[in-house]
Amino acid sequence: MMTVATSLTKRYQNILRATIQHYIATAEPVGSRTLVEEYNFSVSSATIRQALGKLEKDGLLYQPHTSAGRIPSDCGYRIYVDSLMTPDNKIGQKIEQRLTKELRRETYSFESLLQRATQILANLSGYIALITLPQTSTNQLRHLQLVEVSSTQVMLVIVTENYQTQSILIDLPASNCQNESNNEDNLTEELHILSNFLNAQLKGKCISDFATLNWREIDQNFACYRDFLKQLLQQLHYSLKSSISTPIMVHGVSEVLRQPEFSQLQQVQMLLHLLEEEQDQLLPLIFETFEHQPLNRRVSIKIGSENPLESMRPCTLISAIYRQGDIPVGSVGIIGPTRMLYENTISLVESTADYLSETLR
């Protein structure tokens, strides 16, 4: 794709840029007369028509009807995003200021903060805003506590570094050392000791590592609990990993569906079904780590046919990872038509991800 961009002369780049910008603003096919009248090209209408023909031949523009002007193809948008536009940092500063002003960590749980951040992002962008809850399997343990429920069951309560809580019921093993602890006070004391031991051993470790810890190194005083602890942590790992059934917060659907690209009912139904019923398919697209983006950009941009899901083909998805320290834990994304105001949207996504990373710091 970049070979096509570098082969374009400055004039062709300017004409392609102007065509895409005009189409994004109006949703109307762009003809040579429009470009001559509204943009400062010091060339004739015939020269513009020739340039539009070449850009169409290169696959960057196409005509929806033979009598109409041109509109950008997915390849044209890709050239534009990678080479011809500059993100608007002012809009990024605007959302950062608004998030800082409206969201106070001491008055919000982190989940509520994410909900409000999603609303603000949708409001400022005019598109569908998505923010994933932190992925628990990559979170680090902050604190845990074993609490007696009955003589045969305990409840494990954990708090992760981003202040998510989770509770799990665990059956006590029918071992000798548990049989000797018939007294309630003894069981409560042992659970307290075990809680302290587990906190000392596990605090700061990622949940995803729990199922593979080497328990041979456990102190001999806790040898009788080895199987129980191993079972407990494997169940904890599985439970936390599977508990994220609806990890994506979504706002702005009604706004984006007013765009002309979504005038067909089937397209609307497919997109709504994806957002409401198939978030497990959307999650790998939005929560994606990546290393190389043009201009050292920190966002992932999937335009139209670059999306693997059919329901996303009329759309562009722009996403960025937010982190806890150096660990990727969640993602911020925007879904809109391929006729998207990319300059604004890229900055909005980057700035929101930066804000959430700073909040988790």
Give a written overview of the molecule.
The chain is of the alpha+beta class. It folds into three domains: about 1-85, Arc Repressor Mutant, subunit A (Orthogonal Bundle); about 90-135 and about 245-360, Beta-Lactamase (2-Layer Sandwich); about 140-240, Heat-inducible transcription repressor hrca homolog, domain 3 (Enolase-like, domain 1). It has helices at about 1-5, 10-25, 30-40, 45-55, 75-85, 90-100, 110-125, 175-180, 185-200, 225-240, 255, 265-275, 280-285, 340-360, and strands at about 60, 70, 130, 140-150, 155-160, 165-170, 250, 300-305, 315-325, 325-335. The strands form three sheets. Strands 7-3-10-9-8 form a five-stranded antiparallel beta sheet, sandwiched between helices. Strands 4-5-6 form a three-stranded antiparallel beta sheet. A hairpin with a 2-residue loop joins strand 9 (about 315-325) and strand 10. It is elongated and about 90 Å long. Residues about 175-180 and about 290-295 have low confidence and may be disordered.
Top keywords for this entry?
WH_DNA-bd_sf; 10 strands; 14 helices; DNA binding; three-stranded antiparallel beta sheet; HrcA_C; Beta-Lactamase; 361 residues; five-stranded antiparallel beta sheet; alpha+beta; repressor; Arc Repressor Mutant, subunit A; single chain; stress response; elongated; Enolase-like, domain 1; 3 domains
